[in-house]
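Please fill in the sequence for the structure shown.

STRUCTURE ENCODING:
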């Protein structure tokens, strides 16, 4: 009897770490600037910061003010940022640690947001270098983000939620690209939680019969992380679809953003799926299985 009890206790002890690993890290989402999701992080063992969650940023990025607070210096050679609106040189930094809830990452690389990007009202960007290590759940109506272990499979979990599963092509840099449908046009769409709204390039606009109106009242500026500005036209989109998920009217920006070139999408119809379309949804970036899940 004693032997059985000891065996049972050992089994429980072995299961406890596994159960702990299954627990998700939950963070509150704030949207204080342009509706972009931001979460709290801790840098270098104790410096609090608020980062935009940007699935189309390859690396963690730090504002100039955050770099001054941390008193860190550049390490190694500068790199080139290929942002939404243009390219610029960046310095590389080493972070001793970055903590998100109870998840801690050590000796992490990061780049600076260029000085021109003064419009960005956040302490930095949380990019695909961190996000792709998890299954990332966004509960936008509940204002929460949850980081799940990579083995978490939402389609196998019991519960009332039903999901539209949209296959994605995952690039080496961690970007997820899904297939979108606008009217009769099917085109690749980059899932970009750091983009304010949806954008298409002029090749897509031509295929959709949208005409560019030079110097029109619909023109506005697109501010990218590089700090450069491109002019785009704004149009009303009646709706679009991702797999079985349907989306209603929204704004649509038309511009040949530099990001389309960086993704190798220049000259053919392409789209950037921004957070405005997903702002009232619960969705999951399932990096291990290369798919986007959207709650029905």
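FILLED IN BY: designer on duty
SEQUENCE:
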């Amino acid at each position: 009897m004693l032997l059985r009890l000891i065996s049972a206790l050992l089994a429980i002890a072995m299961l406890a770490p596994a159960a702990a690993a299954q627990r998700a890290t939950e963070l509150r989402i704030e949207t204080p600037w342009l509706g972009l999701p931001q979460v709290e992080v801790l840098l270098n063992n104790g410096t609090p910061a608020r980062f935009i969650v940007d699935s189309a940023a390859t690396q963690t990025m730090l504002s100039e003010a955050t770099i001054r607070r941390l008193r860190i210096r550049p390490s190694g050679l500068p790199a080139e940022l290929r942002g939404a609106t243009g390219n610029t040189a960046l310095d590389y930094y080493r972070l001793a640690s970055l903590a998100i809830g109870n998840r801690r990452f050590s000796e992490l690389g990061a780049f600076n947001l260029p000085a021109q990007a003064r419009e960005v009202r956040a302490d930095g960007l949380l990019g695909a270098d961190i996000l792709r290590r998890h299954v990332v759940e966004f509960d936008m109506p509940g204002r929460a983000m949850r980081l799940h272990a990579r083995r978490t499979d939402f389609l196998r979990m019991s519960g009332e939620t039903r999901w539209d599963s949209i296959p994605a092509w995952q690039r080496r840099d961690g970007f997820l690209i899904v297939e979108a449908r606008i009217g009769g046009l099917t085109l690749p769409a980059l899932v970009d939680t750091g983009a304010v709204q949806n954008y298409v390039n002029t090749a897509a606009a031509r295929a959709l019969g949208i005409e560019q109106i030079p110097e029109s009242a619909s023109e506005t500026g697109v501010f990218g992380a590089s700090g450069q500005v491109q002019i785009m036209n704004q149009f009303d989109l009646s709706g679009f679809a991702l797999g079985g998920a349907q989306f209603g009217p929204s704004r649509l920006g038309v511009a040949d953003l530099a990001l389309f070139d960086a993704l190798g999408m220049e000259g053919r119809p392409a789209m950037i799926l921004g957070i405005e379309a997903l702002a009232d949804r619960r969705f999951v970036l399932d990096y291990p299985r290369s798919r986007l899940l959207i709650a029905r």
